[in-house]
Amino acid sequence: MSKPVRRADQRGVATLVFLVVLACAAAFIWQSSQGLPARVASHFVGSGTANGFMPRDRYVQFMLGFAVGLPLVLVFLSSAAFNSPGARLNLPNREYWLAPERRAATIAVLRRHMATAGTMLVVFLAYVHWMVVRANAIDPPHLPEPWFMDGLALFVLAMLAWGIALVLRFSKVPR
Q1: What are 146-154's contacts with CB under 8 Å, separation 24+?
Q2: 8 A C-beta contact, residue 145 and residue 47
Q3: Which residue, 40, 105, 108, 157, could crosslink 59 as a Cys pair with Cβ 3.0–4.6 Å?
Q4: 3 state DSSP class of 41
């Protein structure tokens, strides 16, 4: 019989999942970029037509920096900010959830949620890169707009669900 997973362990799992997804996305971006042309179409107008280009090396550096760096900053800077005793956290029922006896558990929940948001951002940015790779596989480069819009809509819906779940989690105060 397995023992129940404690909340602290759940935080560790969320962070581990984030780091594994981040590493996989970095490897995916690196590997899939090797087949890009020397001049990469990197910006597209609404119709999917390329209107911005950059050298492959610069594109790979930019995409790795953006897809790895932005989520890392989001997750780890927010986590570090939570450690600050004077951190201004805007939560429903703030006084209850940040009372000294509940503060550590509340911070653990916030860290798990931030790791989840970071994971979703990494997956979306890897998807955007995949779309750029696909667009550059044809001549002239063309981004399949419906696929991009579907991916963007899915990401926005996932982030909305994440935000709603976070608000709902702290909206209720146990009796």
Answers
A1: 148/48, 151/124, 151/127, 152/124
A2: yes
A3: 40
A4: strand
